[in-house]
Design brief:
203 residues, 9 helices
C-alpha cells in the first residue's frame, strides 16, 4: 500500500506541475506496463477540469491517446520478444508448446473482445497488450479496439472527478477492493492451472 500511495502522490505532482503533458505521459506509462493508477490520475484530472484549469474533453482525449501509445509499445514488446521467450522457456513455467498454440487460436477468435473489455478491468487493462502482441493480433484492429476500449474508461473516471470535485480521491478505496478481487481471481486461476497441468502429466 505504501508503494501505491507513493506512486499516486508522485503522479499527482507530475500532473500538477506539467499539466496535459504529465497526464499523457502517465497514461502512456500505465499502458506500457508501469503500474500508474489511472483510478487516481483521471479523477484528479477531472477535478482540475471542474476548476477550469483543464478542459474536460481534452483530459479524456489526452489520456486515451497516452494509453494507445503505451499499449502499442507493450504490443511490440510482446510481438518481438514474447513469443521467443515462451517457445524457449515456457516449459520452465509449465507452459507447453501445445498450450501456446491453443492460446494463439483463442486470441485469433476472441482477441478483439479481450482487448476491448480488458481495457476496463483493473490490472488486466495494464497488461492486455502483451498477450495481444505475443499472439500477433491484427495491428489495425488492436489500435481501434484499444482506443475505443480506453475511451469510456477514461471518460467515466474523469467525469466522476469532475462531478464530485474536491472529494475525487474517495474512489481510491473502491478501486483498491477491485484490485484485490482481481488478484485473488488470478491466484485461483494459477492454482487451477497448476493442478490441471500436474494432473495431466501424471495421468
Amino acid at each position: 500500500m505504501f508503494i501505491i500511495s507513493t506512486i499516486s502522490s508522485w503522479a499527482l505532482s507530475v500532473i500538477d506541475k506539467t499539466g496535459y503533458f504529465g497526464l499523457g505521459f502517465l497514461s502512456l506509462l500505465e499502458s506500457a506496463g508501469i503500474l500508474i493508477p489511472s483510478e487516481v490520475v483521471l479523477p484528479f484530472s477531472g477535478f482540475l477540469a471542474s476548476t477550469g484549469r483543464f478542459v474536460f474533453w481534452v483530459v479524456v482525449l489526452v489520456a486515451t491517446v497516452g494509453n494507445l501509445v503505451g499499449s502499442i509499445i507493450l504490443f511490440f514488446i510482446g510481438k518481438s520478444g514474447g513469443r521467443w521467450i515462451l517457445d524457449r522457456y515456457g516449459k520452465y513455467i509449465l507452459i507447453s508448446r501445445h498450450e501456446i498454440e491453443v492460446g494463439d487460436e483463442w486470441f485469433k477468435k476472441h482477441g478483439v473482445k479481450a482487448v476491448f473489455f480488458g481495457r476496463i478491468l483493473p490490472i488486466v487493462r495494464t497488461f492486455i497488450s502483451l498477450p495481444a502482441g505475443i499472439a500477433k493480433m491484427n495491428f489495425g484492429k488492436f489500435i481501434i479496439f484499444t482506443f475505443i476500449g480506453a475511451l469510456p474508461w477514461n471518460f467515466a473516471l474523469a467525469l466522476v472527478g469532475f462531478k464530485i470535485g474536491e472529494k475525487w480521491d474517495i474512489l481510491g478505496s473502491y478501486f483498491k477492493k477491485a484490485d484485490i478481487i482481481i488478484l485473488v481471481l488470478a491466484v485461483i486461476f494459477i492454482a487451477w492451472y497448476l493442478y490441471r497441468h500436474f494432473k495431466t502429466n501424471n495421468a
